[in-house]
Amino acid sequence: MSETGSHNDVPEQNLPSEHGAHGGDVAVPDDPFANPGHPPHEFRRQDIDERAAKHSERVTAGLFGLSMLGTIAFIACFVIFPVDKIVFIFPFGNVSALNFSLGLTLAVALIGIGAGAVHWARTLMSDEEFSDDRHSAGADDALRENVEQQWIQGAKESGFGRRKLIRNTMFGALTLVPLAGVVILRDLGPLPEDKLRHTLWSKGKVLINQNTNKPLRPEDVVVGSLTFAMPEGLEESQEDFQEQIAKAALMIIRIKPEDIKDKRERDWAHQGIVAFSKICTHVGCPISLYEQQTHHVLCPCHQSTFDLADGARVIFGPAGHALPQLRISVNDEGNLVALGDFEEPVGPAFWERG
Amino acid sequence: MSTTTEGSTRRGKKPVGQRAAEWTDPRLGLYKLAKSNLRKIFPDHWSFMLGEICLYSFIILILTGVYLTLFFHPSMNEVVYHGPYAPLQGVRMSEAYASTLHISFEVRGGLLIRQIHHWAALIFIAAMLVHMMRVFFTGGFRKPREINWLFGWTLLFLGMFTGFTGYSLPDDLLSGTGIRFADGAVLATPVVGSYLSFFLFGGEFPGHDIVARFYSIHILLLPGLMAGLLTAHLILVFYHKHTQFPGAGKTEKNVVGMPLLPIYAAKAGGFFFLVFGVIAAIAATVSINPIWTMGPYRPDQVSTGAQPDWYMGFSEGLIRVMPGWEINAWGHTLVLGVFIPLMIFPVVLAAIAVYPFIEAWVTGDKGEHHILDRPRNRPVRTGLGMAWLSLYFVLLIGGGNDLWATHFHLSLNWITWFVRIGFFVVPVLTFLVTKRICLGLQRRDRDKVLHGRETGIIKRLPHGEYIEVHEPLSQEQRHVLTAHVQPEPIDPGPEVDENGVERKINPVSKVRAKLSRGFYGENGQIAKPTVEEYEEITSGHGHH
């Protein structure tokens, strides 16, 4: 670690005045725009003044020392703070004591090394600039010819061009063999078949209120409320719960029958209670923002807006078609039930949807 | 250390480092490799460290990522949570989500590493974009560096998907919504969409496979590809030697700067620790992706203000502002409202990737370039780059249209319409404005060269006239402002041959000549001052 030694006594001839321009073009005196050539090297204080160099050395060593303290503090914090301790630190608020202290001590440990190295490089290592020549990556003619000769000789020795049968069958084999790799991916998943067309809903299936987990009754649904429902028999613990709820989730609202503009919607409703798929027809987010006055619902993901008083048609945003409606009625016990499955696929559109 | 070295030298032995090097050399060719690299010259400029930020954040991602794999369970098996985080107790969730909670609340330092990992990912991609813009605006992509430009671009492209597959892993409500979006986009693919979706998810969405599949893509496939590309990228930077800005002593044939050992080894090595330290400090103080507040993913639940990480924001903008076009015919559906944005997304990115080849073709430039351009001296390129960036930012606004609406009390519908129109208009305006600014700056450079720098000193002459004193530029400053080559536009040749017969000019050549005039014609650049102009002004009446 004697990096300052070389700067102890800068010989006179190294001082700026003695340095001529080197590297680059030499200025042509009568061209005012010519490249003036490499400027003489300018020395820093540390290069000439050993006291300044010593100061830089102390700062660098101090930064490395700070880093050591940072690591020790990191280990101490790791031991001291329980993982669940929350502390209030202005202006960050309530934070995890462990996360906060570990992060900052690690930062000190790392920044100490980084700042020390950079300070060392900037103040004590020589900052003299040098010039290197560039060479084109390309080969010269002789080399190119040599390589081409090698290639031609190799090709000739292989008989690649002459024995067409070998060449063509090899291409054939190499083209076919990746098929094995494609075929073996077949079991990544089952074929879609008509799975995207069907949901758990079927005739007579009771609508279960997702908040209460009880059958939904018409009197539970008042004008201005938004209720989410799922089919009876679907349990969270079921293996395929996520796949089923992704298709079967329902939005239930009540609109005064005379306010329903779409005739089919009114027919499929029960006393103004309408059930629409909750899954957006754009890319499948669950729709959850309901505006009571206008009966508009908005998907929070991409802001497609549907008018539930008018067949859930799209009135704004990127969705391509209306939300599917589920035909509902009440059963003998007075619970809301489905009168069948959705008549069209729910969720995002796809090629076979039609 | 120094005493042992001295001691062993006294016994006639070489220092241990030298002995190790001499043992290795015959086996690896160490000395030959080091000969041209130990003192390799690197030019100095602050903007050259942007690429370093990319490299270092990638290393940080690998280090913290390996740590996270020790605790994360990439499984969608359902468990009921009984951990220390009270609000979620008794809630059904996937093991992926539960193990992320475990890392955040029970593993000491786990939360810190998670937050460093996520912050480093955001910084990694931001740094790649800014680094790419630096290379773009200074023409650093020109021959012989076009292939390295493509390597870098591919790293950005893969980085975005590595980020997406990474933030999807915890299987929380927000990331699950992102995967739902991906499923909707895949389903929109004509003909094979539903098959792709079923193969990707192992059946119906969301299925039980996607986290495990994204996991192997996120921790093995994509980082493996990126590590390879990154190595190739760095090897090419070494091989080509770094570009440099015009300046005294700098030419196309040389590279001027300081040597790798010791200056760049110390500066770059130190900079790694600085980047790591700053990211650690951010991770200590600024919470990121607090998955416990979102809850586990359920396909029938969502939170408002759902946003992807920032680098996916522009694709989110595309999908949000696109009108919901759907064509239904012959029993099939073409979901243009989703499929068009899905296609524009790679096209926007590819546009910047192929630009070096387009520029070289239009301008007929076949030469090697190692001196960087000042952006103002290439107004069309700078304008196109700014137009691309403006498109990117317009789409970012579209991607956060709900947040813009709630934070600035604006109408969501109006923002959406602004982005729909701005998608076409803003890049054109940006191009025109940027080009004009560049031309204005070129005129200013010309004035500075010919008349010197305005000093701000007003002098009154004996006869009462006031003049501002202009100070002539130094030789170096004059050189920097005039060093750039001003190419001529391509000439498609005369329309008639020497006999006055109309020549058939290939329509492609015509387009090319026209574009070339756009780059380097009268309206594409301001003629830089000539030596004659300079001498006429400086020899006659000295100050103006």
Automatic annotation (TrEMBL), chain A:
<keyword id="KW-0001">2Fe-2S</keyword>
<feature type="transmembrane region" description="Helical">
    <location>
        <begin position="101"/>
        <end position="121"/>
    </location>
</feature>
<dbReference type="InterPro" id="IPR045603">
    <property type="entry name" value="QcrA_N"/>
</dbReference>
<protein>
    <recommendedName>
        <fullName>Cytochrome bc1 complex Rieske iron-sulfur subunit</fullName>
    </recommendedName>
</protein>
<keyword id="KW-0560">Oxidoreductase</keyword>
<keyword id="KW-0813">Transport</keyword>
<keyword id="KW-1133">Transmembrane helix</keyword>
<dbReference type="GO" id="GO:0016705">
    <property type="term" value="F:oxidoreductase activity, acting on paired donors, with incorporation or reduction of molecular oxygen"/>
</dbReference>
<dbReference type="GO" id="GO:0046872">
    <property type="term" value="F:metal ion binding"/>
</dbReference>
<keyword id="KW-1003">Cell membrane</keyword>
<keyword id="KW-0411">Iron-sulfur</keyword>
<comment type="similarity">
    <text>Belongs to the Rieske iron-sulfur protein family.</text>
</comment>
<feature type="transmembrane region" description="Helical">
    <location>
        <begin position="61"/>
        <end position="81"/>
    </location>
</feature>
<dbReference type="InterPro" id="IPR036922">
    <property type="entry name" value="Rieske_2Fe-2S_sf"/>
</dbReference>
<dbReference type="GO" id="GO:0005886">
    <property type="term" value="C:plasma membrane"/>
</dbReference>
<dbReference type="InterPro" id="IPR014349">
    <property type="entry name" value="Rieske_Fe-S_prot"/>
</dbReference>
<dbReference type="Pfam" id="PF00355">
    <property type="entry name" value="Rieske"/>
</dbReference>
<feature type="domain" description="Rieske">
    <location>
        <begin position="273"/>
        <end position="337"/>
    </location>
</feature>
<comment type="function">
    <text>Iron-sulfur subunit of the cytochrome bc1 complex, an essential component of the respiratory electron transport chain required for ATP synthesis. The bc1 complex catalyzes the oxidation of menaquinol and the reduction of cytochrome c in the respiratory chain. The bc1 complex operates through a Q-cycle mechanism that couples electron transfer to generation of the proton gradient that drives ATP synthesis.</text>
</comment>
<dbReference type="Pfam" id="PF19297">
    <property type="entry name" value="QcrA_N"/>
</dbReference>
<dbReference type="GO" id="GO:0004497">
    <property type="term" value="F:monooxygenase activity"/>
</dbReference>
<feature type="transmembrane region" description="Helical">
    <location>
        <begin position="165"/>
        <end position="185"/>
    </location>
</feature>
Automatic annotation (TrEMBL), chain B:
<keyword id="KW-1133">Transmembrane helix</keyword>
<feature type="transmembrane region" description="Helical">
    <location>
        <begin position="181"/>
        <end position="202"/>
    </location>
</feature>
<dbReference type="GO" id="GO:0022904">
    <property type="term" value="P:respiratory electron transport chain"/>
</dbReference>
<dbReference type="Pfam" id="PF13631">
    <property type="entry name" value="Cytochrom_B_N_2"/>
</dbReference>
<dbReference type="InterPro" id="IPR027387">
    <property type="entry name" value="Cytb/b6-like_sf"/>
</dbReference>
<keyword id="KW-0479">Metal-binding</keyword>
<feature type="transmembrane region" description="Helical">
    <location>
        <begin position="214"/>
        <end position="239"/>
    </location>
</feature>
<dbReference type="GO" id="GO:0008121">
    <property type="term" value="F:quinol-cytochrome-c reductase activity"/>
</dbReference>
<feature type="transmembrane region" description="Helical">
    <location>
        <begin position="149"/>
        <end position="169"/>
    </location>
</feature>
<dbReference type="GO" id="GO:0005886">
    <property type="term" value="C:plasma membrane"/>
</dbReference>
<feature type="transmembrane region" description="Helical">
    <location>
        <begin position="46"/>
        <end position="72"/>
    </location>
</feature>
<dbReference type="GO" id="GO:0016491">
    <property type="term" value="F:oxidoreductase activity"/>
</dbReference>
<feature type="transmembrane region" description="Helical">
    <location>
        <begin position="260"/>
        <end position="288"/>
    </location>
</feature>
<feature type="transmembrane region" description="Helical">
    <location>
        <begin position="379"/>
        <end position="399"/>
    </location>
</feature>
<feature type="transmembrane region" description="Helical">
    <location>
        <begin position="334"/>
        <end position="358"/>
    </location>
</feature>
<feature type="region of interest" description="Disordered">
    <location>
        <begin position="1"/>
        <end position="20"/>
    </location>
</feature>
<keyword id="KW-0813">Transport</keyword>
<keyword id="KW-0249">Electron transport</keyword>
<feature type="domain" description="Cytochrome b/b6 N-terminal region profile">
    <location>
        <begin position="20"/>
        <end position="246"/>
    </location>
</feature>
<keyword id="KW-0472">Membrane</keyword>
<protein>
    <recommendedName>
        <fullName>Cytochrome bc1 complex cytochrome b subunit</fullName>
        <ecNumber>7.1.1.8</ecNumber>
    </recommendedName>
</protein>
<keyword id="KW-0812">Transmembrane</keyword>
